[in-house]
From TrEMBL:
This is Reverse transcriptase domain-containing protein. It comes from the Eukaryota. Gene3D superfamilies: Calcium-transporting ATPase, cytoplasmic domain N, HAD superfamily/HAD-like. The keyword Cell membrane applies. Coiled coil: none annotated.
């Protein structure tokens, strides 16, 4: 099973999928990485694997949808 097949399989069964990857690089001392600025490497990563987790709806989900 390749990555996309596994991702689709778990997603179709109500699972959230988290991927793990690594890239070695040199950042200046004290550099602050920011998700908002996306100032970190997004390409040339080595994929290590994925984990599928269950994230069941909260008990109040049905009521929130009705509203």
């Amino acid at each position: 099973m390749d990555f996309q097949d596994a991702y689709d399989h778990f997603g179709n069964h109500g699972r959230r999928v988290i991927g793990f990857a690594k890239r070695t690089f040199i950042a200046p001392a004290g550099f602050k990485f920011s998700y908002e600025e996306l100032n970190f490497p997004l390409h040339n990563l080595t994929f290590y694997g994925m984990s599928a987790i269950m994230d069941p709806p909260r008990p109040d989900t049905a009521e929130a949808i009705r509203q």
